[in-house]
Design a protein that fits this description.
The protein is an alpha/beta fold and 153 residues long. Helix content is 51%, strand content 8%. It contains seven helices and four strands. 36% of the residues are buried.
Length: 153
């Protein structure tokens, strides 16, 4: 099985500042990965604006250690917009159906230290990941949820 994280490639491939990446840019790179034949892709769709509020109200020792999560967090802050993969989740699911791709829902707010473990931001994201999983299942799309438990020290 071959999996990718399109958000990493978007930063490198587009050659744009995070703020300047459009929703269509992000989906174009994501679809390119699917066209290339990947089996699963990791998307941090559960890190939405509610999670951003939780991070801001509950400062963390190690902030956001997930690369994909930190990129999307910055994109949302700089654009004052919702996570494009959360807001356009139906669009993402349609692509997954079209190319028969499994979703790996990334845990963008996994803890980077014991102090941050099971804090409000992590739990909020896990709840949203559960909702997103049910939506994908309703469309017969396979889902994996990363974590909780991947922890950088």
């Amino acid at each position: 099985m071959l999996g990718t994280v399109p958000m990493y490639d978007a930063v490198a491939k587009l050659g744009k500042n995070i703020k300047d990446m459009s929703v269509d840019d992000l989906f174009r790179v994501t679809e390119e990965h699917m066209i290339d034949g990947i089996d699963f892709l990791t998307i941090h769709a559960g890190l939405n604006r509610t999670c951003v509020e939780r991070v801001q109200k509950n400062p963390r020792l190690t902030h956001i250690v997930s690369r994909g999560g930190s990129i999307l967090y910055e994109w949302m802050l700089k654009n004052d917009k919702e996570n494009p993969f959360y807001e356009n989740y139906d669009r993402l699911l349609e692509l997954c159906k079209k190319y028969d791709v499994t979703l790996s829902l990334g845990d963008g707010l996994r803890p980077g230290s014991i102090k941050d473990s099971t804090d409000a931001p992590q739990i909020q994201e896990l709840l949203i990941l559960g909702e997103l999983t049910k939506a994908a299942w309703a469309e017969n799309i396979q889902v994996m949820i990363e974590g909780p438990g991947t922890c950088s020290s």
